[in-house]
């Protein structure tokens, strides 16, 4: 053990240290670090939680990457059929990191009731459809059974559409779907509401209803092997660009790929701004915490001026004495980090478990409950970064020790 660390340890354990004039200021500095780390952890957890929630909701309706014919021209409606007998379906083995692939088809229509009507986008799904996200969205009833041998008229509709159309669970309604030749009589289908979902994402809730894909195939006069497009889900959303390029390179040349980030750029550009806010908050809080620690360090130095004079008279170098106080300050920062982590992690866990904090305007953030998500490495990086940056900020004020002369310091005692 070097002697600087030994002296710093003795100072920390000394009773006079805990009851000295500087004790109150030191406690304030520790509290500032603790509060700062709590605020930074909450900022990261809520920012990333909101990003992840929005990403998952957009992907639930579209998949991470869509494979379709070039002729569809980015239309929300399936125009040209695509043969489902592809080498990459139903198992996409040529590219790693793919969790699931499913075939879907969409068709625009109108829901008509006795009192009103609403435009709708009927999304046809089959037995391979991944319902995991909609299990979380499900508000009433159950999910449609689309795995039977025959097509059924069960439909999953949003709470938004149900309110607008004054429909409830168990009701039936008629929908009209235009044919390619608009002069012909539209296709009419009767559906029964077996489930009502609410994703909180009004862009999709306002028009998407999920039906058996065989309805779309029959109305479009497709055979059972023809679908509108494929939706691909990845293990890691951050790899969406690379995986999109890989998928494009292995599929037939007549097919195109489109990621959700390129399909809805305005959404992902908006949530990317959360990163800027997070870094800005972290930067401001670290600066404030560093200033508090600078104040505490200066008070410690003034409180221990006689000790500094004695150590200098005994031959200690300025840097050696500065290290004593830097060790002391690092200890105080560590205490603040400890309590900050305990409180911060507890707050994030409570919010994630019970969701007691909610947005006053959920329609703007596409979710009612404030979501949280934080990784272990985020916590470690935040702690290490705060400790290192605060200690570095203390190097300059600790330079005041070099200006203290032994004679004046001992007289000061």
Automatic annotation (TrEMBL):
Task: List the coiled-coil residues.
Answer: none
Is the keyword Transport in the record? Answer: no
Q: Where is the ABC3 transporter permease C-terminal domain?
A: 280-406
Boundaries of each MacB-like periplasmic core domain copy? 28-232
Where are the membrane-spanning stretches? 21-45, 278-303, 324-351, 376-401
Could you tell me which InterPro entries the record lists for this protein?
Answer: ABC3_permease_C (IPR003838), Lipoprotein-release_system (IPR051447), MacB_PCD (IPR025857)
- Spell out the subcellular localization from the entry: Cell membrane
- What is the protein's major site of localization? membrane
Q: How does it sit in the membrane?
A: Multi-pass membrane protein
**Keywords, comma-separated and alphabetical:** Cell membrane, Membrane, Transmembrane, Transmembrane helix
State the superkingdom.
Answer: Bacteria
The record's comment on protein family reads: Belongs to the ABC-4 integral membrane protein family. LolC/E subfamily.
UniProt xrefs under PANTHER family: LIPOPROTEIN-RELEASING SYSTEM TRANSMEMBRANE PROTEIN LOLE
Protein's UniProt name: ABC transporter permease
Species of provenance: Kordia aestuariivivens
């Amino acid at each position: 053990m070097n002697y600087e660390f030994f002296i710093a340890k003795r100072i920390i354990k000394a009773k006079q240290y805990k009851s000295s004039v500087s004790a109150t200021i030191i406690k304030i500095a520790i509290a500032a670090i603790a509060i700062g780390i709590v605020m930074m952890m909450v900022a990261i957890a809520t920012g990333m939680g909101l990003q992840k929630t929005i990403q998952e909701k957009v992907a639930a309706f579209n998949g991470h990457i869509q494979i379709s014919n070039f002729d569809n021209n980015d239309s929300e409606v399936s125009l040209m059929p695509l043969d489902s007998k592809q080498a990459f379906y139903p198992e996409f083995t040529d590219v790693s990191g793919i969790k699931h692939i499913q075939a879907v088809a969409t068709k625009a229509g109108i829901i008509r009731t006795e009192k009103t009507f609403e435009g709708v986008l009927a999304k046809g799904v089959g037995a391979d459809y991944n319902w995991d996200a909609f299990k979380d969205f499900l508000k009433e009833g159950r999910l449609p059974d689309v795995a039977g041998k025959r097509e059924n008229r069960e439909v999953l509709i949003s709470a938004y559409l149900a309110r607008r159309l004054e429909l409830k669970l168990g009701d039936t309604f008629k929908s009209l779907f235009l044919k390619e030749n608009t002069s012909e009589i539209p296709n009419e289908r009767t559906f029964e509401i077996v489930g009502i979902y609410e994703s909180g994402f009004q862009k999709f809730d306002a028009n998407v209803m999920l039906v058996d894909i065989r309805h779309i195939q029959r109305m479009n006069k497709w055979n059972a092997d023809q679908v509108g497009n494929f939706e691909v889900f990845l293990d890691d959303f951050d790899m969406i660009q690379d995986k999109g390029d890989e998928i494009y390179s292995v599929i037939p040349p007549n097919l195109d790929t489109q990621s959700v980030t390129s399909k809805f750029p305005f959404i992902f550009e908006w949530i990317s701004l959360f990163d800027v806010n997070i870094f800005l908050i972290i930067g401001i809080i670290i600066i404030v915490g560093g200033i508090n620690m600078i104040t505490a360090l200066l008070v410690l130095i003034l409180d221990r001026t006689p000790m500094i004079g004695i150590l200098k008279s005994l031959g200690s170098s300025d840097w050696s004495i500065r290290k004593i106080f830097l060790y002391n300050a690092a200890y105080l920062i560590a205490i603040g980090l400890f309590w900050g982590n305990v409180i911060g992690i507890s707050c994030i866990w409570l919010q994630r478990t019970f969701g007691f904090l909610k947005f006053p305007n959920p329609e703007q953030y596409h979710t009612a409950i404030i979501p949280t998500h934080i990784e272990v490495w985020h916590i470690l990086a935040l702690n290490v970064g705060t400790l290192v940056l605060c200690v570095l900020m203390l190097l300059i004020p600790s330079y005041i020790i070099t200006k203290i002369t032994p004679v004046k310091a001992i007289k000061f005692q």
